[in-house]
Please model this.
Amino acid sequence: MHELKVAEDLSVIVLEAAKNGKLGKVSKVNILFGQLIQIVPDIFEFAFRECVRETVAENAEIDIEIIPVKMKCRGCGKDFRVMENRFVCEYCGSTDLEIISGKELFIKSIEGE
Amino acid sequence: MKNILDRNQNKANEVRSLLKSKKVVMVNLISSPGAGKTTLLERTLEEIGSKFRIGIIEGDITTDRDARRLQKFNVPIVVINTEGGCHLDSHSISKVLPSFNLDDLDVLFVENVGNLICPSQFDLGETFKLAVVSTTEGDDKPGKYPMLFREARAVLLNKTDIPYTNFKLESFKTDLRNINASVPLFEISCTKSDGLKGWFDWIEGQIFNE
Ligand SMILES: Nc1nc2c(ncn2[C@@H]2O[C@H](COP(=O)(O)OP(=O)(O)O)[C@@H](O)[C@H]2O)c(=O)[nH]1
Ligand SMILES: [Mg+2]
Ligand SMILES: [Zn+2]
Model:
């Protein structure tokens, strides 16, 4: 249930941003999760609701974008999307890879007034 | 864009640089409950306990049972109760580090809370992670938890002594190799002490090299 801890940390950031931005109400929080993080959106949203209950963010909509896993090959320099957990370059077969995306736990933006 | 786990990451970076300056290697042991982390620590302390100065952090949801199993080795042990939490984080590690005399340590083993998914998301400031899996859990773990098997510096497959499980070693290895072609895999039995020599040599090498 890492969703809970991530939701807690997110709620702290959102409420702080609302305070600094003098928002009376947070209407939407846009986030990005990498696929490798394995966050279950429903559990996450439920946990977030619990964390922001009776705050300016209690009715905020949560928009979660899941980012696919992409690697860059150190052998041939090309990048590709990882399908079915095959961390092997689809162009040259090399397994010497660098991660480009898939581990994100980012806040894109916070909307409110 | 802001990283949601910034707070954890910043503290983890702090822990990592402190340990580096003290030349302490921190090993984060990750597995499902019951895969054999504590038993592995018992075997490992028996073997390398006289060669290195070892400390242990036991992550436990509510008890200190594992810590008591390790008390006979007379090494410094600190328990972190996560009060139901499914993983350790860098703040809890940072809080207990002052209980150790870091100048008198070579290696700090951290037994994370039994769980394959959450601990791999939370950097503790460790030098490296180890994944421990056992044959009784089934052979589909790498595919289900790719991030851990991608990031672990070694994988230990424990309980190879148990016959009649439906664990298919070949299929496990194929999955693991697809995810991480080069990670060392040790097939061991901690209760029968099988296959441990390779592991001991490897971990000693890692501690020396860091
Ligand atoms: N058959 C068998 N049992 C093991 C082995 N290693 C550990 N066990 C048993 O598995 C149970 C859980 O082990 P433990 O080390 O406490 O797992 P942990 O939860 O990962 O710390 C205990 O009853 C151990 O005796 C092994 O190699 N073979
Ligand atoms: Mg244990
Ligand atoms: Zn390539």
Q: What stands out?
A: The pocket of magnesium ion (ligand 2) is lined by residues B 37-38, 66, 111 (CB under 6 Å). The mean pLDDT of chain B is 95.
